[in-house]
Input
Amino acid sequence: MDLNSETARRRTFAIISHPDAGKTTLTEKLLLYSGAVSRAGSVRPKKAGLHATSDWMAMEQARGISITSTALQFEYGGCLFNLLDTPGHEDFSEDTYRTLTAVDSAVMVLDGAKGIEPQTRKLFQVCCARRIPILTFINKLDHAARDPLELLDEIERVLGIRAAAMNWPIGDGPAFRGVFDLVNRRLLRYSRVSGGRRKAEAWETTIDDPKFAQAIGTDAFGRLQDELALIEAAGERFNRESFLEGSLTPVYFGSALHNFGVETFLQALVTLAPPPQPRETAQGVITPCDAEFSAFVFKIQANMDPRHRDRMAFLRVCSGRFEKDMSVYHTRLGRKIQMTRSHRLFARDRETLTEAFPGDVIGVVNPGLFVIGDTVTAGSPIEFPPIPSFPPENFGLLRNRDVSKSKQFRKGVRQLEEEGVIQLLFTPGGGTREPILAAVGRLQFDVVEARLLQEYGVTVSIDPLSYSCARWLEMQPGDQDRINWPYNGFLRATDRRERCVCLFESQWTMEHFVEKNPGVSIRENGLRNNKSGVSTSLR
Ligand SMILES: Nc1nc2c(ncn2[C@@H]2O[C@H](COP(=O)(O)OP(=O)(O)OP(=O)(O)O)[C@@H](O)[C@H]2O)c(=O)[nH]1
Ligand SMILES: [Mg+2]
Output
């Protein structure tokens, strides 16, 4: 297959938002309309119902929230999509931020009743900083929603981006009739499908058709005409260049649950979402159609498939053609490795992959070869910008409750650490038997506890500790004696690489410590990811 044409038809995007706006539901419906699944599962299935494909983890299904990002590849309209569904909860945002390094565009989902919520704003800022073009889907129009003009205004005011409506909702809540496609000037009226598991029947007509007014009712028709006159006179118009540079977002209204507006949104992704873009590296810009293959690891996930119980590294292909078993240079290890056991991913499902192109997310079963941020290339060594990592703010003492399982315990915590779910710290008293868990968000403790039990058969308890921040010290020989250690509210530990880590009970104690030790190099994070050891904090 031809590198140029295969690259041109790739669309790699993430779905982002505040928790519960409907990312996973929209993901499921995009899969339904693309034909990748024949019946849509839901986030909160009724008894024995189908689960949403991208929430495959037991804890996600039990709680009805997304905990980890998921990669799904599917075809539609001649394009090959790599969709990454991300978790919205702040406690899992490190995973979401890493995922954003792997995409060329993002879909921002808003709840029509709530508008811009705090986590959406933060994620939007990350997209802006990375210049990722954003398409907006305003969801849940089947419930009472805010005035569409007010929602557009809020996007512009709060996010500082121009918002161009591409379709217009007709009513909301029980009176929601469908959407008016502003680009092709047609009404798309939908009928509800029970549970939204199957495609909704769309009924299409133009605004001059007398049946149009009949279909939506004269009141709704009158209101629509007024609103259309208003947005045509004063509304923002879509402009491709502004969208691609990130200063304008095309806005679509709909209801993912009831399949309203999903198909037009999928078509919009075909025409608007950009193909793989050039990427900066420490060695200069590389373009996707460069003949030499390059990729980087943005995620590691263990035990996706209970039959395999292995670790999968997620690589984003940035340039060139990938071929199974090819020999590549691993920049961090400084040697060649062979890319065996490569897979195409569809949430937890996988199939052997023999070839991949820029934009693709490939899963490589990782026998300890990869850490997040690693780069591989078929040509000379390159390094992509570091993957963001946050300083941990939650700490807890991890105890194995079943001494006969100490081997599984060690393996489990080590693998979860490799995924970046948590970091482990060790004290002289606790050692590796009772390590300290350090996490960005408190919910990660629940994830560790549940996953150690489900995936490794180990029962653990986690006792929260009162520390609220940590700093890594870069010690030179002799520094130890020169350091002014605090008297209390403080704990010294080491990380996996035996570097000194200080835990502080308060920001104040930490700042005081930093002030008192001006000569000591202090970092916010333990940097697992890159050779140069640069840590980025985006929080
Ligand atoms: N009424 C209505 N409910 C919806 C719609 N879309 C999603 N929901 C519901 O909203 C809840 C959250 O949906 P999810 O798709 O899990 O939201 P999410 O954004 O993936 O949430 P996190 O991944 O946990 O951040 C679920 O109960 C969905 O059924 C919609 O269009 N209308
Ligand atoms: Mg979700």
